[in-house]
Amino acid sequence: MSTFHINKISLAMAFALASTSMSSKAVEFNTDMLDTADKANIDFSRFSKANYILPGLYQLGLRVNDQNVGEYPFNYYPRDNEPDSSEACVSPQIVSELGLKPAALNKVTYWHQGECADFSQLDGTTVRGDLSNSSLQLSIPQAWIEYSDPNWVPSSRWDEGIPGLLLDYSLNASMSRPNEGSNSQNASISGTVGANAGAWRLRGDYQGSYSRASGSSQSSEHNMDWSRVYMYRALPTLRSTLSVGENYLSSSIFDSWRYTGMSLSSDDRMLPPALRGYAPEVSGIAKTNAKVVVTQQGRVLYETTVPSGPFRIQDLSSAVTGKLDVKVEEQDGTVQTFQVDTATIPYLTRPGMVRYKFAMGRPSTYEHHIQGPTFATGEFSWGIANSWSLYGGSILAGDYNSASMGIGRDLFLLGAISADVTQSFARLPSEEKRQGKSWRLSYSKRFDEYDSEVTFAGYRFSERDYMSMGEFLDARYHEENSGHDKELYTITANKNFSEVGLSFYFSYSHQTYWDQPTDDRYSLSGSTYVSLFSLKNVSLNVSATRSKISERNDDAVFVSLSIPMGNSASIGYDGQYSNNRYSQNVSYYDRVDNNNNYRVSTGVSSGGDESTRTQFNGYYSHRGDFADMSANAAYSQGNYTSAGMTMQGGATITAKGAALHSGGISGGTRLMVDTEGVGGVPINGGRVHTNGYGIGVITDMNSYYRNSTSIDLTKMADDVDSSRSVVDSALTDGAIGYRKFGVTKGAKALAVLAMADGSHPPFGASVRNSEGKELAIVGDGGIAWLTGLQGGESLDVLWDGATQCAISIPKTLRDQEQLLLPCHTVAQSQTSTAAKNSAAIEPTDNIHEEQ
């Protein structure tokens, strides 16, 4: 092999189209305008028709209305009556995942022995392949699709993931050395062990602790136990989750208790983001085809076009509150305007929708013992009109029964309110029947004109003989018969002063009991950004709390000031008053990079009948590929010295690979990414790097929601290339998703490919490795820019739909070397390794992978 010097290459792909149209008709190229001596030696078979793709099998990323769906193998077949054309074969399985309405599905026909979908009956639907980015673009008018949202996909495309095992953990350890008394060491661990099979998730939550005191009397304690074991799965057709095993009652009406049994409850996460929670419904009548615009204080929240007649807009975000302005612009130029007022509280449900929760089983203890009567409970909330919701529920448990009924109302300008009453019936062994009522009132209101909000205000009153299920179990089996609730007042509110960048938050709760002292808690905080001389964006925060429990006040006040110093560093001051003692500290904070930061502080504490002491604190945090870690140390003069550390992470094991990873939601949804054996590839801005086997795990994934995961090309090693750097996924709760990126690692070289007779492979020929990956397209004069080369490997060169010759790469390569590579002819009857692999491409990124 020899190297050579390359002149400028005129690949002015002005393929000088001689035809007048880029339609589906054949295109004839004017080769006289190409800067090449061998004009006859050009393979334009793949370019001669607009969007024409040679018949064969291709691995393509499917995009529906510009949204990534997944990567699939697609066969291109010629139509029976059009032998010179080819069309992508979209299988019935893929059609079932497109989210088409039933009426649209009935219009889809099939050809090529029922293997391929024909969308010609769906007006406006187009299918177009694009080999330049290895994609198949499917455009479907909105009228044929169930629902459209940029961050949501229909349930037909939710990914249940692949089978696998997982182990998540959170480890904490600390040691303290007081000036007086015994030294102590403490450690605790908690997490989840799980297994996935199809739609089912098996989970076991565990926790344990260890403590040891050293000194004159050494002692140690330790325990380890499963806190609960359960299984669950999503039921997409019901928009619900089914759970079996040990659990805690989740209810919007009743108190919670631990039980062993099963539950079925609607899951708002399965709804499109704009349909989760409560939001107003905007309805009206359009005289013509009209544009409807919903705004709030001049900001457009929603805009759509509706046909003439009644219309209903049901997909406003549940986060929208306050007064909405609606404008209907008719085709005849007339405009009608009106306003919709809204507020949100937990018991308002969208019109026509029903939220429900059912559970049955028997109460159980933390030691996994069944203790209590068999029970069944259910509750619902029904949006009966645009401003009214009806809700209620009941518990049936033999010696304990209760029923509740309530109603919610949007009061428009006055906010939103809900009220309910619960009646309980209990029978205790040593007493007569006990029955009582509990009334509850809740309110919420956003005051847009004052930029303030009463987030929640509530009042509850319970009669002396009213008992919740938890109180009944305590009295029946543990002889605990105190602390009966009487009255509860709660309020949370905030106020913003946008002109000066000042915000306040206030919360208050007042709980009285029939048989013990009152509890009170107040909390007030304020924050702002100010300028001090030449210093900008100085942050000032003030917080104060008071807790009164058993007639004893516990007061605390905290003040902090932070001054930015450059891009990531800041210095600060904080002062705190608590338990009659004052402390003051100065601190320095710096963010080293996206994954590392630290803070050090020093100061003094005084008061509380104790001497003045100096103190020091340090904190460091690191987000790693294999775990999230932090370390801390503290020193208080004449008092104590302490140090501690935390570590959060996990391991995920599947047939596709295994990896250690940083922490996320314990036992939660995750995505395993595969970079085809290439390690150290940065994912999502470098927050995760693949391990030595090319496997990484992303743990901060949202369930039932479109998630995009990407390779950070700016941080990738020079010898690594990616043909596919972005993947999308929509995973069900607890799933282990799997996606493969197109990544190659190896040297790069500019080469001239030459045949034995001195000619070159034609312009447009494809160079592929033994795995069937295309590494280059041959240009003028046999020029090819090759990437991902491995020393000593053999590459196939294909044109006219077959492998025509093969080249051998030198065993020793220098990056970006210039090479002259002889291309040895391959007999037409011989099938090369690359051709075999090309004909046997398997799916790597199916939304529903066959198990």
TrEMBL record:
It is found in: Cell outer membrane. It is a multi-pass membrane protein. Gene3D superfamilies: 2.60.40.2070, 2.60.40.3110, 3.10.20.410, Outer membrane usher protein FimD, plug domain. GO terms for cellular component: cell outer membrane. GO terms for molecular function: fimbrial usher porin activity. Keywords: Cell outer membrane, Fimbrium biogenesis, Membrane, Signal, Transmembrane, Transmembrane beta strand, Transport. It comes from the Bacteria. One of its GO terms (biological process) is pilus assembly. Residues 832-851 are annotated as: Disordered. Residues 28-173 form the PapC N-terminal domain. Pfam families: PapC_C (PF13953), PapC_N (PF13954), Usher (PF00577). Residues 753-808 form the PapC-like C-terminal domain. PANTHER family: OUTER MEMBRANE USHER PROTEIN, OUTER MEMBRANE USHER PROTEIN YFCU-RELATED. Belongs to the fimbrial export usher family. This is Fimbrial usher protein. It comes from Obesumbacterium proteus ATCC 12841.
